[in-house]
Amino acid sequence: MNAFKHVLLSGIAGAALMALAGAASAQDVDDYSSPPSPQTSDSHTFTYSFNIAGTSDYVFRGISQTDNDPTVQGGFDVTYGIFYAGGWASGLDFGGPPPAGVGLDAQVEIDWYGGIKPTWNSPFGPMDLDLGVIYYTYPGADDQLGELNYVEFKGGYSWSPLHPKLTTGAIVYFSPDYFGSIGNVWTIESVAAFEFHKVWVFLPVLNGVVGWQKGDSAKGYALNANLADPDDEYYYWNAGLNLAVENISFDFRYWDTNIGGDASGPLCGTKHLCDERFVFTGKVALP
User: Fold this and answer.
1) 272 assigned to some structural domain
2) What was the pLDDT predicted at 141?
3) Alpha-carbon span 112 to 72, nearest angstrom
4) Which of 71, 80, 175, 178 has its Cβ near the most Cβ atoms within 10 Å?
5) 135-162 per-position pLDDT tens digit
6) Which residues contact 123 (CB under 8 A, 6 or more apart)?
7) Cα dihedral sign for 180, 66, 63, 136?
């Protein structure tokens, strides 16, 4: 769900963390290719599932987390009525020569999450809600320049007021102390998905996301290396086609951000990590 946050510390630590942040990221457990998918039943039913995926590039909020290389991902989910919990992991490649590699020696990201997904019968029709918390972790990382692990709270909704096959929604994320200990960061995403009729054995879904993220530049949130005038917000978006057959899905997606020019700051690192790209992901879910 990753290039996520990066830090500006003063002096040498600041420069090192900037480069490190350029590579660092965290994948949100939500699938960015689709709106929230809440548990709409409040019955006391226990369910579980596992998934494994291969992707050509782990992109988090518009920024590559694997230096544009492929990786393997996987996770599990359990639900009981409106309650849910799970875990998700992905390979990482923060790489690069010092100081870019400082603090970024973690080879894997593991995220833990939980929350509730109730349904609200609003005056405009049923609305599925998602209220949860996510804990992003980077086992093995050297975080002496700033704590890499962080917590993020989220609240979202999805509904289909215009057409039963068209789902729209929004998700708000807030971290009180983001990746690299750079203070509070807000992220807002608008999501939409349209499900077409089955084509042969495939169920096609056209979907996309437009996201916005803002942090406090005074605490190190920045997109470029200009410490005197760092950016404190950016936009990202994706659009793609997901083809599902049984418990297998194939996702073809275009990603881009408005981080242009010769980006070389803590959030992006280098321009090739946050510019436009096509990503393919194959995923299997069990049972």
Assistant:
1) yes
2) 83
3) 17
4) 178
5) 999 998 877 777 889 999 999 999 999 8
6) none
7) negative
